[in-house]
Amino acid sequence: MLTSRALGLSLSLVLLAACGDDGSIGSGGGDSGDTTGSGPSGTTGSGKGPTTTAANGTGSGTTTTGSNQCDSGPLAEPIPGCAPTPPASTGDPHQDCVDRINQFRWECQCLPPLARWTEAEGCTDQQSADDQAADSAHSHFGACGEFAQNSCPNWGSEAEVVGGCLQMMWDEGPGEPFSEHGHYINMSNTGYSKVACGFSSSGAGVWANQNFAP
Length: 214
Prior knowledge:
The protein is α/β, with parallel strands linked by helices. The protein has helices at 93-109, 121-134, 158-171, 178-188, and strands at 2-6, 9-15, 36-37, 51-53, 115-116, 148-155, 194-202, 205-213. A hairpin with a 2-residue loop joins strand 7 and strand 8.
């Protein structure tokens, strides 16, 4: 499922993957983008910036930047097919999530890292739980002071979020419309300096929000 809002222009789109007839996201894997429909109401955020949601999927490719490729600064475009192996887990999924986002930024496009926004993590955990209880992505967007948000609804585990969902988001790459590239745009945006990752677990799976701010 993907819902988004960018710069005051509401774009609402549902990409169904392992979904029921009502558009809810299942816990199994699947490819996104097969079916489109109108997005649910109340999931486009507060108007401060983009919000996006990713259903289950996997990335492909292994190419990353060479040792000297970043000497001239950020690349204008991400390296095609960039899918680095996730770093070893620290035992803290919040840190693992930030590390993975920064891995994509640096190894795939030579972008500077985002700071771990620890002050907002408790709020983002609760926000993820509230969204999961409502079964509605971005239903509490803005509650933690974020300017943009990506969501991974009901994945199999925290490790699958870090290793799979974030890869699928990055794989969208740059382009238009925002509704098809918003996850990557949020992850690579140089206007943001920090990110808070939040997780909530239930019988439905692991719901994870990533909140971005300047």
